[in-house]
């Protein structure tokens, strides 16, 4: 066989082999990236549906309750506020694996506030058997005030993930 033809055939075969190997490596890389993206999306979907969404709804519910508060209302306090506070705290404690890392400190602040609030509620409402004149359970500046910025960051993260996953 002509040495030039042999050289051309060798170059073509070598090129084809290199292209094939590069194609396999690139395909594996793309598959790994795709799996990682799907895994991150699945985690975000779970975080939205099992943690951020329910926390967002409870934060909105309790804020709306405070906004319509006109006088002492033991039902609103004992049913809506207590239920909302307890639900948020329990979600943060049981679904901690779904808390985005940048919200861990905020989660700690919220849990701490709700722990103190629930403790005061227990002492003031359940132990004392209050009447309609008993003051509202409040954990204010002297104790552990509600961490508004932490709540806002949780709600913003819910909106961010929702838009990223499902559009506006």
Keywords summarizing the entry:
single chain; 168 residues; mainly alpha; 4 helices; 77% helix; rod-shaped
Explain what the structure shows.
The protein has 168 residues and is mainly α. The chain has one domain (46-166). It has helices at 3-67, 74-94, 104-127, 148-166. 19% of the residues are buried. The model has no long low-confidence stretch (mean pLDDT 85).
Class inferred from helices and paired strands: mainly alpha
Quickly count the domains. 1
Measure the end-to-end span: 67 Å
Rounded to the nearest angstrom, the radius of gyration is 28 Å
Number of strands: 0
Helix coverage percent of residues?
over 70%
Unreliable stretches: none
Q: What portion of the residues fall into strands of 2 or more residues?
A: under 5%
Overall geometry comes to rod-shaped
Q: How would a crystallographer describe the biggest sheet?
A: none
Mean pLDDT: 85
Number of helices: 4
Return the string of H and E elements: HHHH
In short:
This protein has 168 residues and is an all-alpha fold.
Layout: helices, strands, pairs:
Blueprint: H1 3-67, H2 74-94, H3 104-127, H4 148-166
Helix pairs in contact: 1-2, 1-4, 2-3, 3-4
